[in-house]
Design goal:
Oligomer: single chain
Strand content: 5-15%
Distance between the termini: 59 Å
Strand order of the largest sheet: 10-11-15
Helix content: 40-55%
Structural class: mainly alpha
Number of domains: 2
Length: 522
């Protein structure tokens, strides 16, 4: 069926809902582009084109920079140990696409370990598909946290003089990165941006992300910089995934009720057993299926909002316009229907007779021209958007990665299920053992029950769901499943060194902080 949609009709992404393009996301690219947005106050500057052979940055270009620095007496030993220095460059300083495939691998950017990392990058290989925009919007809900994060990432570099700040003690990777970029002019052209005029749709979720970043920054003098940035990467990917899943869950409710103020009742059951055949895996699989089954309705609602914005002649650069579009969908006027009758006629009349018969059969149960128009768009673009949104969720959830909370086996017998990777758990525990005391933070020990309760109330992650309303009439198998899950959770905490139950005394069986803090300023 050849249905020709114009550019506006086929466009799905709406910054007022979720800024991200549904593509294969690399979280390192997200951070590199986020650092650029932070450096330029929400603007994505255009990179000046470089002429000739300098267009693409290769590993040899970086080696030449270090050779020149050695000749100038600023570094030493580079030429004496060429194999070791190349290994250091490849493994510690640069990100690559097709890493390990010698005939295909290329540098994408410097690793996101400093705010200035974005200066050296090959833009085609560093696409973030607007995930950085979403993170920037979320950080904007707490400007102080955004500035604190920016200051931390900028340490060791003087933005006024564009020189290394010798008063700061940095790790060798950050220092090597700064030596690479110190003689490189930014080469950017300012562009217009409306990003700063948009509020994130899920305000409370954005504030929660800011609070997690704020808590991580408490450790900036206690743990190695590269470890803290790894935590930041993990928690950023985690929150982007939760945000996207909540939008999928809540947007249809917003359209139905005509407002963004809907109850957030999203939660998922997490399987921490690492066993595809465990009793709890069936529940975790069911929650995953519920997410992906609801995706079609989310895609439909996004096209409905886009259509309403076009009808009202409203741009996607003002959050107030989203509320107006939702109200228009809730209370459709006669003029609204007449407008979409015309849009429907234009699409329908462009079809050949055979396709018209097929469309008539599909649309015979739709009672308004607006519904027919949206369903026709979905017929053309629905499957495409669904496929790439599944890929987006997989990437943001770090599927089959110890930083993530989604896993899938190679067999069809083992579909996607929600899990809890060890590095993600470690990051969350480091955040949750901090207790806010006015304008200061202190560390606290937690019982297993307290930690599971915080994970549920703060993030919606259920490890023991017997007290949940949906499991109030649970059978024996469900009780056994949750008991096994709790024991597996304890074992996973032992593996990362936060839990030790050497004593039989229940009061001593607690999660203890890795870094003790008596008090730390926000």
């Amino acid at each position: 069926m050849a249905i020709k949609l114009n550019k506006d009709e086929s466009l799905f992404r709406n910054e007022l809902i979720f800024t991200v393009d549904a593509k294969a996301i690399n979280i390192d690219n997200t951070l590199v582009n986020l650092f650029m947005l932070l450096r330029h106050n929400g603007i994505r500057p255009r990179q000046r084109a470089r002429a000739g052979s300098k267009t693409f940055i290769e590993l040899n270009n970086l080696k030449e920079v270090f050779s020149q620095l050695e000749n100038e007496g600023e570094v030493s030993g580079f030429s004496d140990y060429p194999e070791a220095t190349e290994l250091w460059l490849r493994s510690n300083l640069v990100n690559m696409v097709y890493r390990g495939k010698i005939d295909k691998e290329k540098i994408s950017s410097l690793r996101p370990i400093h705010l200035e990392s974005y200066r050296v990058r090959n833009s085609p290989n560093t696409r973030d598909y607007n995930t950085a925009d979403q993170v920037y919007l979320m950080l904007g809900t707490n400007p102080q946290v955004k500035e604190d994060l920016k200051s931390f990432l900028m340490e060791g570099w003087d933005p006024i003089t564009d020189k290394i700040d010798i008063g700061k003690v940095l790790d060798v990777d950050s220092l090597g990165l700064l030596h690479l970029i110190k003689n490189i002019k930014p080469g950017f052209l300012d562009t217009n941006s409306t990003l700063n005029q948009i509020r994130p749709l899920l305000l409370e979720q954005s504030k929660l992300y800011c609070d997690d970043v704020r808590r991580l920054l408490v450790y900036k003098r206690l743990m190695p910089r590269n470890v803290l940035i790894d935590y930041l990467k993990t928690v950023t990917s985690f929150h982007l995934s939760i945000y996207s899943q909540k939008v999928i869950h809540l947007l249809p409710k917003m359209v139905e009720q005509g407002t963004i103020d809907v109850k957030d009742n999203w939660n998922i059951v997490i399987d921490v057993t690492d066993d595809f055949e465990s009793n709890i895996s069936k529940i975790a699989i069911s929650d995953t299926e519920y997410l992906f089954n609801g995706m079609y309705e989310y895609i439909k609602c996004t096209y409905m909002i886009n259509a309403a914005l076009r009808r009202l002649k409203l741009d996607k650069n003002n959050s107030n316009n989203l509320s107006r579009a939702l109200q228009a969908l809730k209370n459709k006027t006669t003029e609204f229907e007449i407008y979409f009758e015309l849009q429907w006629d234009n699409l329908y009349n462009s079809l050949i007779n055979e396709d018209k018969l097929l469309v008539d059969d599909i649309m015979k149960y739709e009672d308004t021209y607006f519904n027919r128009y949206i369903e026709l768009i979905l017929k053309v673009r629905g499957a495409y958007n669904y496929r790439f949104h599944v890929q987006l969720i997989d990437n943001l959830s770090q599927k089959n990665n110890d930083r993530g909370f989604l896993a899938q086996g190679r067999s069809k017998k083992h579909p996607r299920r929600f899990v809890l990777g060890t590095r993600l758990l470690e990051t969350l525990v480091q955040i949750l053992v901090l207790k806010s005391d006015g304008d200061k933070f202190t560390t606290q020990s937690l019982s297993i029950e307290e930690l599971m309760n915080i994970l549920k109330t703060r993030y919606g992650l259920i490890i023991n769901g017997l007290e949940e309303e949906r499991f109030k009439n649970a059978d024996l198998i469900t009780h056994i499943a949750y008991r096994e899950n709790v024991e597996a959770f304890k074992q996973k905490l032992r593996q990362i060194g936060f839990y030790n139950d050497l004593s039989d005394a229940y009061i001593l069986q607690r999660i203890r902080p890795r870094y003790e803090l008596k008090s730390e300023l926000k």
